[in-house]
Amino acid sequence: MTDTTIHTQRFIIPILSKDSTIDIPLHVFVSEVNLSSSTISPLVVLFHGAGGDHYHFDKVVPVLVRSGFRVLTCDLRYHGESQPTVKENNVVFDMGTLCQDIFQVLLWLKEHHYNHTKEDKEKINCDLIFGGLSMGSILAQVCADQPTTKWESLGYTLRGMIMIASTSIHMIWPRIAWMDLYRDIESLDAAVLQAARQAITESAIHEDAKKEVARAMALITDQTLFLSLRACANSLAVPLLLNDEEQEQKPQFDDYPIRLPKQLLITGQADEHTVHITTALKSLNDGEGIKDTVLRIIQNSGHMVPLDQGVEVGNAIVDMFYNNEK
């Protein structure tokens, strides 16, 4: 009889801050079915959104693990339990830094967690899928946008990407207009940040999901929330300067769309603006000949899709990256 018990291991992995003097202990969680298996299962890495933490994927992870995936979730720096050991004067939070954090996490796991000989480590060739919710989706895209040799040096073959409730970092139009307000700014009024907290909490549609968003949001400072929103804005393609007659543009990429095959776009049916954005992205990918782009609009869910309908999100990922391979 096959053992389908899910095993989740917590790792506390020290990541140096930008000035290389302060440790930020990243709390990382690896979930899989059979810890003793010699087979290296595909690894799905899921990133939470601004003000979130790894618990936001609690309904998604079991679906993936029982379908044969390993899943890595974490609390990104300054979120959840991943807080610096001492107070920092110069808090750094941008997508390039977060991407490097993830590289260090995967390197640490390769060197310290998996019990292989040196020869085995060099030969491992494991499929890797990056995904995330909202801000986490932007980070997933930044990771997927790196030279493939970055991940291949760790033994991973980048196989696909999961974008949940998010725009594309290379899409010029249509845009999430409010996000451009955060581009390159140095500070934000506390009242505006409080409104942002409330808007994020209310972006779920089920009461239990809203409570979960509020719980995680209470763990981050205003500074972290501000830096998270600015990091998202600064990662997007630069907007066009339009006159009044040009306000309605045709969907378009910049010159560097991510051409990775197998891109799964997920959004909640009640998140109407993101439905518009992801529908345009699907059309653009198809027009660019980017293979296997699938759009899944999940019913009875808002922006916080993994909290509103986590099992459905998990099933969509399995359908994309497992069932279609059979």
Automatic annotation (TrEMBL):
Q: Name one GO cellular component term.
A: membrane
Any idea where the AB hydrolase-1 domain is? 44-313
* Entry-linked InterPro entries: AB_hydrolase_1 (IPR000073), AB_hydrolase_fold (IPR029058), AB_hydrolase_sf (IPR050266)
Gene3D superfamilies noted in UniProt: alpha/beta hydrolase (3.40.50.1820)
Q: Which Pfam families match?
A: Abhydrolase_6
According to the lineage, what is the superkingdom?
A: Eukaryota
Output this protein's name: AB hydrolase-1 domain-containing protein
Q: Which organism is it from?
A: Circinella minor
